[in-house]
Amino acid sequence: VNAAAVNAENKIIVASALAASSFFTVDHKSLVATPYSIAGTIWQTSDMANSNLLATGARTNGTAIDLIADQATEGKGKVSIFPNPVTNNQFAVQFNELESGQYTIQVTDVMGRNISQQIVNVGGKMQSQSIRMDPGAARGFYLVKIVDQNKKAVFSTKILVQ
């Protein structure tokens, strides 16, 4: 099992990152697993690998789970980061709709420690910048934040380094 989450029916969804057909719901009382049908497509690594299905705390049955990506991403649509999950310790930042100017790309670990910082001069839409992380960087989640010249965050999201 590469990922697990609990759905609105209090059943556990388990999955493997190797195949989209490997999603199952598990009744935690009987431990009976049944294939889980997925609306949409999955490419190799599940959305759970991006932590998009994480929800914590007390919840009443049947309440919708808001995706973390929708809650936590500032500047959605202005910047794209790919691939995510990150492979080979390298990813690209594409500036889609930011005004021209100087920006700083900051990568921090979950403890808030600075892992990487790079200044970029954005000249127009669709400009792309490659970010290479230290090959010794631990696998796990990192925060990518882009700040303008006034130190104001214009974009932030999380990435998963595999």
Characterization of this structure:
This protein folds into 2 domains: 1-70, no CATH class; 73-161, Immunoglobulin-like, CATH 2.60.40. It is 3% helix and 43% strand. The chain has 1 helix and 11 strands. The strands form 3 sheets. Strands 1-2-3-4 form a 4-stranded antiparallel β-sheet, with no helix packed on it. Strands 8-7-10-11 form a 4-stranded antiparallel β-sheet, with no helix packed on it. The chain has a 3-stranded antiparallel β-sheet with strand order 5-6-9, with no helix packed on it. Residues 43-47, 49-56 and 62-73 have low confidence and may be disordered. The chain has 162 residues and is mostly beta strands. The protein has one helix spanning 68-72, and strands spanning 3-6, 12-15, 24-26, 33-35, 79-87, 90-95, 101-109, 114-122, 127-132, 140-147, 153-161.
TL;DR?
This protein has 162 residues and is mainly beta.
How are the SSEs placed, and which strands pair?
Blueprint: E1 3-6, E2 12-15, E3 24-26, E4 33-35, H1 68-72, E5 79-87, E6 90-95, E7 101-109, E8 114-122, E9 127-132, E10 140-147, E11 153-161
Antiparallel strand pairs: 1-2, 2-3, 3-4, 5-6, 6-9, 7-8, 7-10, 10-11
Major β-sheet strand ordering: 1-2-3-4
How much of the sequence is in beta strands? Answer: 35-45%
H/E topology pattern = EEEEHEEEEEEE
Helix content: under 10%
* CATH topological fold name of the largest domain: Immunoglobulin-like
Low-confidence blocks of residues:
43-47, 49-56, 62-73
Oligomer: single chain
Rounded average pLDDT: 77
Sheet with most strands:
4 strands, antiparallel
CATH class of the largest domain: Mainly Beta
Number of domains: 2
CATH-derived architecture of the largest domain: Sandwich
Q: What gap, in angstroms, lies between the N and C termini?
A: 16 Å
Q: Helix count?
A: 1
Apparent shape: elongated
Rg measurement, Å: 18 Å
The total count of strands amounts to: 11
Structural class based on helices, strands and sheet pairing: mainly beta
